[in-house]
């Protein structure tokens, strides 16, 4: 087993329960960790035998573009699509981080981590 870690995917999106979040949007970071058996890829040196990072990025980008009230919901959708597309994945972790969330305080970021 091995792990592919794609970290720091920066996107602008419109998630949140507040009306202003739907209008103004915010900056987000998404991290994806996938566990799979990479032995075949280690030997073959073929992209077909591993998980394509570009495909992971495209799924994250597509799901982040669909507005949700909760980043938990977005993370779950990303995992669902990754399992559907990345058949080699045995375990997936997705962290969605909202930077500078609109809260009554000086908060740098809020993250959720969904593991399946």
Question: Strands, helices and their partners?
Answer:
Blueprint: E1 2-13, H1 19-24, E2 26-36, H2 39-44, H3 53-64, H4 71-85, E3 89-99, E4 109-115
**For the record, what is the CATH homologous superfamily label?**
GTP cyclohydrolase I, C-terminal domain/NADPH-dependent 7-cyano-7-deazaguanine reductase, N-terminal domain
Biggest sheet strand line-up: 1-2-3-4
Helix content: 25-40%
The gyration radius over C-alpha positions equals: 15 Å
Q: How would you describe the shape?
A: elongated
Tell me about the biggest sheet?
Answer: 4 strands, antiparallel
CATH topology name, in short, is: GTP Cyclohydrolase I, domain 2
Name the helix and strand elements from N-terminus to C-terminus, one letter apiece: EHEHHHEE
- What's the number of extended β-strand segments? 4
Quote the distance from N terminus to C terminus: 16 Å
How does the helix and strand content classify structurally?
Answer: alpha+beta
- Percent of residues in beta strands? 35-45%
What is the count of structural domains? 1
Please identify, by name, the CATH architecture: 2-Layer Sandwich
State the name of the first-level CATH class. Alpha Beta
List the quaternary state of the chains. single chain
* Poorly predicted residue ranges: none
H/I helix tally: 4
Mean pLDDT: 95
